[in-house]
Amino acid sequence: MTQRSVLVVLYDGVQSLDVTGPVEVFAGASRFPGAGYVLRTASLDGAPVRTCSGLVLVPDSSLADAEPPHTLLVPGGEGTRDPDPALVDWLREHAPHPERLVSVCTGALLLAEAGLLDGHRVTTHWTVCEHLARSHPAVEVDPDPIFVRDGRLATSAGVTAGIDLALALVEEDHGRDIALTVARHLVVFLRRPGNQAQFSAQLVAQTARREPLREVQHWITENPGEDLCVEALAARARLSPRHFARAFQAETGLTPGRYVDRVRLEQARRLLEDTTDGVTGISRACGYGTPEAMRRAFVKALGTAPAEYRRRFRTHPATDRRATT
Fold first, then answer.
1. Is 145 within 8 Å of 319 (Cβ atoms)?
2. Which site among 67, 112, 265, 269 is 20 to 30 Å from 196 CA-CA?
3. Which long-range contacts does 297-301 make (Cβ < 8 Å, 24+ apart)?
């Protein structure tokens, strides 16, 4: 096993967890003999930086004095809103050279400003995906996954997704056993794969204000295999179907049918990833009724059939696979 150097770029307004999350993962791997990483941090002038939460981070050096790394990591934060032109210039000149270029959260905005994302598929925090796509039309922005790999480029969604991406990189570099031990030490999941959506169905939808509608939401999540037609759900809420459908959409932002579709797809994906249950059994358990109905739902939402989805997940659990729920 070989050590790899990691350089983390610091700047005023950086998000502290975007820095410390991946650093803790890489540092944890470094406790294993023959494995791990040489970690360095650097700011433009080598001076301490204040994070957006007020913490002060002291870098190891200036960017000018930093040794060329194997992996260059650019965290996000409020400082990406109006970035220092000198930092963008440094990235434009130096970021193309490392073997691996990584951004966490809105760090992707800095890479985009430097022209380093053109022609690549990337992700970032869900709140800025639209802005990134609009400001840089040559970048293919995928708002759904928690992280995306595209060749030497790796980008992640917001904050804690940087930990998921770092664990995936450790697994790639030093194997599953080391990555799993690090994940256990940090009390996080190892296999929260890149294709997992930034939001679950429950988070995509708003939580209904009225108790009967909230109860129906919870019941749908816990019983995806039941009859979830509008009439049945309305009866549970003690409302007429028309009133229920109108109130549900008004309070959650989704129609009942769309919410049910998301819940069933999410549950089916989880069962394909985490169990050895057959497609026929999963289709029944998730309310699709038949494997063909489940296949159509997967192809429409994910562009792949359930069996192929499982095969890709089992073969490459930490690589880039599109997810659009």
1. no
2. 112
3. 297/261, 297/264, 297/265, 297/268, 298/265, 298/268, 301/261, 301/265, 301/325
pLDDT value for 302? 81
> CA 228, 245, 299, 127 torsion: positive or negative?
negative
Q: Please state, in angstroms and rounded to a whole number, the distance separating the CA atoms of residues 107 and 129.
A: 12
CATH topology of domain 4-186: Rossmann fold (3.40.50)
Q: What is the pTM of this model?
A: 0.67
Topology of domain 201-315, CATH: Arc Repressor Mutant, subunit A (1.10.10)
Give the 3-state DSSP-derived string for 65-87, with helices as H, strands as E and coil as C.
Answer: CCCCCCEEEECCEHHHCCCCHHH
Distance CA 298, CA 290 (A): 13
Burial class (CB in 10 A: 0-12, 13-18, 19+), 60: middle
Instruction: Give the angle subtended at the CA of 30 by the CAs of 107 and 44, to the nearest 5°.
Output: 35
Active site amino acids: 105
Query: Strand 153-156 to strand 147-150: parallel, antiparallel, or no bridges (unpaired)?
Result: antiparallel
Q: Percent of the chain having pLDDT more than 70? A: 89
Q: How far apart are CA 22 and CA 164, in angstroms?
A: 8
Question: With the C-alpha atoms ordered 20, 152, 11, 130, is the resulting torsion angle positive or negative?
Answer: negative
Residue with tokens 């002291």: 58
Could you tell me if 25 and 45 are in contact, meaning their C-beta atoms sit under 8 angstroms apart? no
In this structure, what token pair is assigned to residue 224?
């995806």
Domain locations in the chain as residue ranges: 4-186, 201-315
148-181 per-position pLDDT tens digit: 999 999 999 987 889 989 999 998 999 888 888 8
Contact of 306 with 272, CB cutoff 8 Å: yes
- Spell out a b/e string for 126-147, using b for 16 or more CB atoms within 10 Å of the CB, else e: eebbeebbeebeebbbbbbbbb
> What's the number of CA atoms in the CB half-sphere (13 Å) around residue 51?
16
Cα-to-chain-centroid distance, residue 18? 13
